[in-house]
Write a structure and sequence with these properties.
This protein is mainly α. The protein has eight helices and three strands. The chain starts with 10 loop residues before the first helix and ends with a strand.
């Protein structure tokens, strides 16, 4: 079977096709009105990595052109590795300050199902409570609420990925 060559559209070709077939209103300003460096990055990312213009423009609309230039590659890598819903919810926690995407992996503790499950893990593997006798009953929910929630926060993904209990540090040293 012969291999069919697939061509990559230029930004201008993409805009023409998008405007012709899209019934949605345009997001933000057209790419032609963006800074030259932003336009060059949009074209480069699309041609080199086949990244979607709509996703990149949505990032610019939610953040800024400057944050796109500085942080979009990290954001895209995180979305590939962890899922866009988790990364977007992480961004919302920090009021869409894109610089926090650079700290995501240092802050991420893992997925534990619930914050209470994380509290149990923390008590049994990290804190001094791991040496308690077996007959002592520990209320992990109270430990999360009274101690750990001051230093950690939880993100649940319930739109498409349905994963819960993603735990992050509030601050990175």
């Amino acid at each position: 079977m012969p291999v069919r060559k697939v061509s990559t559209l230029t930004r201008k070709e993409y805009e023409l096709l998008y405007n012709k077939y899209s019934k949605q209103t345009s997001m933000g300003k057209p790419t032609g009105q963006m800074q030259e460096e932003t336009q060059d990055l949009l074209d480069s990312y699309n041609q080199l990595f086949n990244w979607d213009y709509n996703e990149m423009c949505r990032f610019i609309e939610n953040h800024s052109e400057e944050e796109f230039q500085a942080h979009y590659t990290k954001y895209h890598q995180l979305c590939d590795d962890y899922g866009s819903e988790l990364v977007d919810n992480f961004g919302l926690y920090f009021d869409l300050d894109a610089s926090f995407y650079e700290k995501f992996e240092d802050m991420y503790e893992g997925e534990y199902g619930t914050a209470t499950d994380f509290a149990e893990y923390w008590c049994n593997n990290v804190d001094e409570l791991k040496n308690l006798p077996d007959w002592v009953e520990v209320n992990y929910e109270t430990i999360w609420e009274s101690r750990l929630s001051k230093d950690y926060f939880e993100i649940d993904c319930d739109m498409s990925e349905y994963t819960y209990g993603h735990i992050f540090k509030k601050e990175v040293n």
